[in-house]
Amino acid sequence: MVQMALDIENLEVSYGNIRALKGINIKVPPGSIVALLGANGAGKTTTLKAISGIVATRGGRIKLFNSDITNTPAEKITALGVIQSPEGRQVFPDLTVEENLRIGAFTVKSKAEIKRNHERVYKYFPRLKEREKQMAGTLSGGEQQMLAIARALMASPKVLLLDEPSLGLAPLIVQNIFEIVKEINKEGTTILIVEQNALQTLKIADYAYVLEVGEINMEGKASELIQDKRLIEAYLGGH
Ligand code: ATP
């Protein structure tokens, strides 16, 4: 049996009386891009927070390469190589691009590895190299999103969690960022991506799950789901 990078079984999370996740199952094979799709409030961000150890689970199990990481403290999960690039491009606006990247690398001990990550990041995002001395807050929305992903890559992720990288960005920029995400994956990083933009995401993903009010109501190969025009329109918005 293939060992999963992430194996989520019957995951339940509640906020008081609100059952945000009602027992969901998600598998992320190593080397793949798996998408978690769904409308606003479906529970996508909550899933990532549970994996990252930011919210407590009420039931179920989360395994990372076969070790149980359920309810492990967030800093330990980061140290194990599960790195989240947050929604809303939460970069540090008053620090430069370069300083933001250095913060991303804070868990990496080896100088050589930091240098390698730096070079890799600037290869993916040459615009960030051009703007390395610029305050992150003065970057465009697309550049800030690039920086959020770049900062996560500085931590040498084994599994990269991407929270809505297309949020608020123009279609052309989204396409550009998604191409880079695909490239990052091709070079070996396993990715779990959470998105409302189903069509663009299915183009780069291997497999996808559709979340609706705390439950997975559909899953399949991205190449098959993308054929289902009614699904794209009815459930997910065809943009
Ligand atoms: P979005 O696209 O807005 O991030 P989402 O699919 O990621 O949506 P979640 O943010 O995971 O959805 O929210 C799932 C449910 O849990 C929603 O009903 C939401 O209102 C609720 N919720 C999320 N965070 C909290 C919180 N801190 N306290 C109470 N309820 C919350």
UniProtKB/TrEMBL annotation:
SMART domains: AAA (SM00382). Keywords: Amino-acid transport, ATP-binding, Nucleotide-binding, Transport. One of its GO terms (biological process) is L-amino acid transport. The keyword Phosphoprotein does not apply. One of its GO terms (molecular function) is branched-chain amino acid transmembrane transporter activity. PROSITE patterns: ABC_TRANSPORTER_1, ABC_TRANSPORTER_2. InterPro entries: AAA+_ATPase, ABC_branched_ATPase_LivF/BraG, ABC_transporter-like_ATP-bd, ABC_transporter-like_CS, BCAA_Transport_ATP-bd_LivF, P-loop_NTPase. Belongs to the ABC transporter superfamily. This is Branched-chain amino acid transport system ATP-binding protein.
